[in-house]
Amino acid sequence: MKQIIQDLKKGDTILEEVPVPSVKAGAVLIKTTRTLVSLGTERSLVEFGKANFIQKAKQQPDKVKMVLDKVKTDGLKPTIDSVFNKLNQPLPIGYCNVGEVVAVGKGVTEFSIGDRVASNGNHAEYVLVPKNLVAKIPDTVTDDEAAFTVIGSIGLQGIRLLNPTFGETIVVVGLGLIGLVTAELLKANGCKVIGFDYDADKVAIAKAKGITAINPAEGTDQVKFVESFTNGVGADGVIITASNKSNEIISQSAKMSRKRGRVVLVGVIGLDISRADFYEKEISFQVSCSYGPGRYDEQYEQKGNDYPIGFVRWTEKRNFEAILNAIDNGSLDVKPLITEHISIKDYLKIYGDMGNSKSIASLLVYDSTESPVKTVNVTQKSFKGQKGVLGIIGAGNFTSATMMPQLKKMNANVKYIASSGGLSSTTMAKRYGVANSTSDYQEILKDEETDLVIITTKHNSHAKFVMETLKAGKSVFVEKPLALNNEELDQIIAVYNENKGALSVGFNRRFAPLAKNMKKLLGNDNTPKNIIATMNAGFIPKQVWVHDMEVGGGRIIGEACHYIDLCTYFADSKVVAVCMNAMGTNPDESTDNASILLKYENGTNAVVNYFSNGSKAYSKERLEVYSQERTLVMDNWRTLKTYGFKGGNSKSKQDKGHYNQFNELINQQKNGGAPIIPFDVIVNTTKASFAAIESLKQGKWIEV
């Protein structure tokens, strides 16, 4: 299928050929008939992509600070690589989609195949959209009209926050697409509406709809006009739908408001607010968030958990439905806003020169008769007779930033890369010369030429993919964690014992050059040691998926397991008991500030400190090993200081062992498929991470 994307590095707007998304639980697959181009929002993305690096930096000063902090901790080259990796990830654009449901995911009961629907899907021939971001279209509403659903909801949410009453005077600043819809909805609400815009064509459209529309370029003073229109009272409310960097708009909005008036920002403007403008009149100011309640809430959008209507009357989905009903009953007429219809194949007629476009609303038309495909051939390659042929399931940031650069260095034979949406895998396949991009991972499992499957998806899918891969008779490498609970782990053990494939987990630290050096210095005498491992992991907001115990498993299971394995590597023994204590008076199982005490069979004692409340200026990782009146201190995988050992200290580039790990993995696969870490050690480490969480719950040592 074809999809429009924005290349943030080169600045090109591209019509890309990508696999059709795979259907997920809680979502519907839609075959697109129309999408609406939002010139304001999309123009800013296109212009950002075309900007040079200095211009991009000026537009995002907060990101520049993050980059500078990363340079201090990780070094210049890793930081530059990380920045370029982000810019190499194209952005799908568009969010006003209309089409027909062609597949329904598990758990979706309100939609059926054949339903006409509006959603916030991208500019693509097929889109997969969660059910709470989809609304049915009334029979009398055309696809052209329904394409305004999401845009209309943005304006409607601004109105809901303003809470206008019948007869009030409301000013709409900016009569672009959202502004025109907002003004008409306000008029339907019984308000007296004043609209301001510097575009004569937009002012004319507003006047035709019965709105008092003014072009300030003709000499009208906006504040004085509102005062005159309201007999000196001022506007009851102001909705700003303009896009302008000037601070004058917010100042004028306050000055034209009555005492205790309301100002709601829907657009993007300068916000250097003068206290005096708002103070004397006690004006309230609020920023509107997109389509309404539920936006950016993963529980609502991705997991499909609706807000009870008795407590949240208007969610984003219910706003979608309200706009469609307004079009249906004639209180919102969007037909005069349509400037042009363009085939998606001719998309550059819109995106080629967006900066000079005078269009109000451009509609992209989709009329492809091609059968949807789930696998796209990117590079012609033959893998016949080769060993160590790889397939990768997962095309997220870790795959792009860490795994693929290492595999490229090794000239690894990667035949497939899979992502559920198809876009990220296609982009990565083109960038790294991978033969095929697919949205159906089963293609990898069915291919007899594929020997090894690498899994880098979200944590809650690891166990499922591991077991399916082993059952398909292939070896598997899965990023940590192997599983999220003991039940999943037991199932994996059973499948592993029944099948021939090797299994490896991404505990990469034991493969780092400095870790290998430490192991060599310590020797193999199996004497007990004291180990202190500290991960200054950094703060991650609670709403991020890694904290969700059902999806990410929390940072102890998902990340601290790296250091449990590393301690096991140096102890050369198995964990027999675990005790974990977390910071705070009432920590929960998703804690990311905790100390884990590990007891080993051979008497080794290890402490893993996993902290997220430390300074970014301090080293991310530090390891101390005490043994036989000798001490090793590793700092951030760069330096190793030795005390009591013969020979001097050593240094390394910041190397966490990914290259060595993948090199050993592929070499083992070519030579028979043996795991690079013994399976029983992997199981022991995984159980130890589960035991840490259980120890926190019960407040005592837990045997492994």
From TrEMBL:
<feature type="domain" description="Alcohol dehydrogenase-like N-terminal">
    <location>
        <begin position="85"/>
        <end position="139"/>
    </location>
</feature>
<dbReference type="InterPro" id="IPR000683">
    <property type="entry name" value="Gfo/Idh/MocA-like_OxRdtase_N"/>
</dbReference>
<keyword id="KW-0862">Zinc</keyword>
<dbReference type="Pfam" id="PF08240">
    <property type="entry name" value="ADH_N"/>
</dbReference>
<dbReference type="Pfam" id="PF22725">
    <property type="entry name" value="GFO_IDH_MocA_C3"/>
</dbReference>
<keyword id="KW-0560">Oxidoreductase</keyword>
<dbReference type="InterPro" id="IPR011032">
    <property type="entry name" value="GroES-like_sf"/>
</dbReference>
<dbReference type="Pfam" id="PF01408">
    <property type="entry name" value="GFO_IDH_MocA"/>
</dbReference>
<feature type="domain" description="GFO/IDH/MocA-like oxidoreductase">
    <location>
        <begin position="540"/>
        <end position="632"/>
    </location>
</feature>
<dbReference type="InterPro" id="IPR013154">
    <property type="entry name" value="ADH-like_N"/>
</dbReference>
<keyword id="KW-0479">Metal-binding</keyword>
<feature type="domain" description="Alcohol dehydrogenase-like C-terminal">
    <location>
        <begin position="178"/>
        <end position="298"/>
    </location>
</feature>
<dbReference type="Pfam" id="PF00107">
    <property type="entry name" value="ADH_zinc_N"/>
</dbReference>
<comment type="similarity">
    <text>Belongs to the zinc-containing alcohol dehydrogenase family.</text>
</comment>
<dbReference type="InterPro" id="IPR036291">
    <property type="entry name" value="NAD(P)-bd_dom_sf"/>
</dbReference>
<dbReference type="InterPro" id="IPR055170">
    <property type="entry name" value="GFO_IDH_MocA-like_dom"/>
</dbReference>
<feature type="domain" description="Gfo/Idh/MocA-like oxidoreductase N-terminal">
    <location>
        <begin position="391"/>
        <end position="507"/>
    </location>
</feature>
<dbReference type="InterPro" id="IPR013149">
    <property type="entry name" value="ADH-like_C"/>
</dbReference>
<protein>
    <submittedName>
        <fullName>Bi-domain-containing oxidoreductase</fullName>
    </submittedName>
</protein>
